[in-house]
Amino acid sequence: MAEKLKDKVLKFGTAGLLMLSSSCGFYRIPAEVLNQFNIPKKFENYLSNKVNLELTVEAKGMVFSVYIYDTDKDGRNDVVEVISPLSTSPMFYLFDINGDGDFEDDGETILDEYMDGLNGNEKITSLPLSEEGFI
Ligand SMILES: [Ca+2]
Ligand SMILES: [Ca+2]
User: Fold this and answer.
1) What is the CA(110)–ligand 2 centre distance, in A?
2) Which ligand is nearest to the CA of 107?
3) What would the pLDDT profile of 33-81 be if each residue is shown by its tens digit?
4) What is the 114 CA–ligand 2 centroid distance (Å)?
5) Distance (Å, rounded) from C-alpha 109 to C-alpha 121?
C-alpha cells in the first residue's frame, strides 16, 4: 500500500503529494466541499484526530476497512470512513452533521465513487451497509 501511494506521488506530482498528505493528517476538506455538503467546519481537519475505532466489514464479497473518529472529543463518534479494498481513499464518508450521535440522517452519508478524496465529485447517498447494523 505504501508503494501504491509513492507511485501516485510520482505520477501526479503535487496532487499526489496532497493525496499522500491526506493519509498523514495534514489534509483539510476543501471549503467548497464543506459548503456543498453542509459539513460543519469542525470536521474539516478530522484526519488530524486519531482513529477511535477500526474495524473491517464484509459486504458483497469484499472486505471494507472502517475508520471511526471522534473529532470533537465528546465521546461520540462523528466521522466514519469506509474504504474498499480497491483503493486507499474512502468510498464512503459519514459525518454526524446534525450532532445527534448517529449517521442515519439525510445528507450524512457521502459516496465518493471515484475514491479520490473529498474534492466535490461526491454525492449524497444512503449507506446500504448500515442496514446490516455494522455501524
Ligand atoms: Ca446524525
Ligand atoms: Ca472525490
Assistant:
1) 10
2) 1
3) 999 999 999 999 999 989 999 999 998 899 999 999 999 898 999 999 9
4) 6
5) 14
